[in-house]
Amino acid sequence: MLPPSTTKRATLSPQAGFCVKSTTNGIKVFINIAWDATVPAPPAAAADVIQRAMQGADSGWYVPVVVSEPRSDTDKAGKSSLVVDCIYNKSLKARVLRDPAWKTFLIELALQRIEAQTALVLSRHIGTPNIASKGKLAPREVTLPDLPKPTEKKALIEEVTTWAWSTSSQPDRIHIRIAVPALTRALIPATALDLEPRRLILAVPSQPSVDIDLAASDAELASRHSTSDAIALKRQRPFNVHEATAEWLVSEGVLVVHA
Description:
- One of its GO terms (biological process) is box C/D snoRNP assembly.
- InterPro entries: PIH1/Kintoun_subfamily, PIH1_N.
- The protein is an alpha+beta fold.
- The chain has helices at 47-54, 93-98, 100-118, 154-160, 218-224, 230-234; strands at residues 7-12, 15-24, 27-35, 66-67, 71-74, 80-88, 140-145, 163-169, 172-179, 192-196, 199-203, 210-213, 245-249, 254-258.
């Protein structure tokens, strides 16, 4: 347990991601993988450090996760089962959708954290029920590590958050062009891009995140994105999430999202 000076109480309202199924002593265990922006994100690290951690090596890199206490439920056949929620930072969601190895890593990490917290021994024969979560994910009060915010050089922040947008009518697309300093092909697999109808989040290792939240007030948008016409973008239609594509222009150090 961390000392009180390094922890804080927080309210989580987790969003369902996906559900996997394991067993312990013949009892089914449903594990809800969920997302919440309040859970601390992993620390910034180079792509090779993250890759070593995914392969099981002790690279010093870690992924915070909030694990609930197991609760009783029943499966489709009415037999007793257990349900556990594992909640990660929302920035990890996008990579799960495009990187099967990353998804496998988060599942194994969830299993390990559940075993460490509950003393359950979970089977690695994993099932994938076609549900986003077993039961509803209720808001909850949790204790989180009160991590210091990383110090960021002003020049780097300005460089990373430089972005612009445009539209095209044939086809109907909104194009968001984001500058990513020191972009390399090796860096791309370690980045996380999350696109929602009114929000875009880009997390790049060792760089501040880009968070374009069009649900924010005009004043907030003007303050956060003073060099971009975010308010005018807010007046556009929602992003077309289902048909969106991302284009990495490595030679230019740019990511272009077409939505």
